[in-house]
Records
---
Amino acid sequence: MQTVGKAKEDIPGLKNRIAELERQSNEFRTKVEELRRAKAATTVVKTEKEYVNAGASGTSRTEKVKCDRCEELEGILHFEKKSNVQLKKQIEQKDTARKQPLPASTTSAPCPKCPTSQEMLDRQKEENIEMMDRVMTQEKKTQEARAAKESVDRYLSLAQSQLVDAKHRREKLQKENQDYRDACEKMTKEYADKMAELCRQEEEAKKQIATWEQMYSEWMSTMEKRVNNLQITDQEFNASMHNDNSHRRSGGAGNQRR
């Protein structure tokens, strides 16, 4: 997850770098196409410059200042310079025209300017090759950046997949939590209702007990009074019976004396 987090932090810079490299690559391709079209439309025009030398004999002869190969080399050199200007803007394709062999010179006599032109042409080609190497290096960096972007995209896809899974798990847990909460609230309500019913029954039981205690107290008071009355009645009855027995015994004794 730390790798995914780090990849997420590098995404904006990588995307900007890749966009810039792709833009430069498109510009390179456009420039290459323009150069190819320019090469196809360009023709090296051979010109001959003449001047008249007056000799001792008074005759004049026409001499070429430049040979055919010089003209061709200068034309190619001009094209190479033009190509170099375009390559300095980081084009990525090689110019195929510079690989074409030069035609053999039709002049049998050596031209003093050919070596210089050839040297300039070779130097220009070397510069173009160096520039092309830099372009290829830039293209390699572009490919590496593209590969890095693809890697980041994979990490992003994985992170998004994990995020979706986590979201689903969270939603599932939230639903289960809500179900448990609803069940808990239902049980709490049922418990509260039962407790309220028990409290009501307890209050009624207390009232009944109080009523029964009062009734028992009244009954006990009544029974105590009855017991007391019975005791008094019993005492009176016993006293009456004792008195009757005394009279009977005293009456019997008198009859015996007579």
---
Amino acid sequence: MQLIDTVPIPVCHPKRARQRAIFLDDPILQPSYGYCPSKDWHYFGLKGGLRISSLGKIVAAPLLPASPHDKNLLGSLLPDVPASTTIYGDKGFIDLDEQVKLTEDWGHLCQNSPSSARYMIDRPFGSIRWAIVSDD
């Protein structure tokens, strides 16, 4: 089992992108404009990709361009993963074409339940745990 995710790495505010003094001469790391939907935040910089094993060891940590969507960066995060490995990632990595490809390559693809369905399960267990903790 492995986990994948990306995190924004801002170099500077987008308004100051033309005035930056770093990464100007680097042929490999060229920052670009990106958007982080979870924070509703525009930034200028890179994306840090992470692939973590079930033991908590970082297997891969590439620096990626900020502008492409996560679904376009999946190949950069999974270059040498064995076919028997289960990969967990958020829905930003999957589109319909990728679902079909992953199902053909690895056999099946699981999706997390919507939060409304999880609420019916999580709420009773949360109140039971609270009741047990509060009785002490």
